[in-house]
Specification:
Strand order of the largest sheet: 1-4-5-9-8-7-6
Strand content: 25-35%
Distance between the termini: 14 Å
Order of helices and strands: EHEEHEEHEEHEE
Helix content: 10-25%
Radius of gyration: 15 Å
Number of strands: 9
Shape: globular
Oligomer: single chain
Number of domains: 1
Structural class: alpha+beta
Largest sheet: 7 strands, antiparallel
Length: 166
């Protein structure tokens, strides 16, 4: 299994993705109807294409992690102005209200210090099980998505997103 980590500003990630032909993501589905992801080259496009979550242009400090062999697991962290959170959620197809105090996942042992979700005081969460919910994201072959929103910093929202095929 391959694990990679990448950190960029939003503008640099978009420029890199365009220059690299969407950096390994393809709108062509694999044999099971899922979007293919090259975990060697992660970017903003990886998150947008695989997780079906268009990132806001105002987003900064993007970090993308990808695991994959037969199944794929993409994790992303992005900081955005709090005013852009609602439009991000709508664009990602997340229509249910976020649950206050809900953390659908925790840190992994090799996560960087920026991924300290246990210490978030003002947290919102969401979990989407594609076996139970029929959404546009689920139609792309995902098994689920999980989201944590950190509202500890005034005026900013830090979003942690996981999307996976199993």
């Amino acid at each position: 299994m391959m694990r990679t980590r990448a950190t960029w500003s939003r503008a640099a990630a978009i420029a890199l993705a365009l220059a690299a032909g969407l950096a390994g993501c393809s709108d062509e589905p694999d044999h099971e109807g899922r979007v293919k992801v090259d975990c060697e080259q992660t970017s903003a496009a990886t998150v947008e294409d695989f997780a079906r979550a268009p990132l806001p242009a105002s987003g900064t400090s993007l970090e993308v992690f990808c695991d994959g062999f037969t199944d794929t697991y993409v994790r992303a962290r992005i900081v955005m102005p709090r005013r852009d959170l609602r439009s991000f959620l709508r664009a990602a197809g997340i229509e249910q209200p976020l649950r206050r105090g809900f953390r659908p996942f925790s840190e992994h042992e090799d996560d960087p210090p920026t991924w300290q979700v246990k210490s978030i005081e003002h947290v919102l969460g969401h979990e989407e099980d594609c076996l139970a919910v029929k959404s546009a994201a689920c139609a792309s072959g995902l098994a689920g998505r999980k989201l944590i929103v950190d509202l500890d910093n005034l005026g900013r929202a830090t979003v942690y997103l996981e999307a996976f095929t199993t």
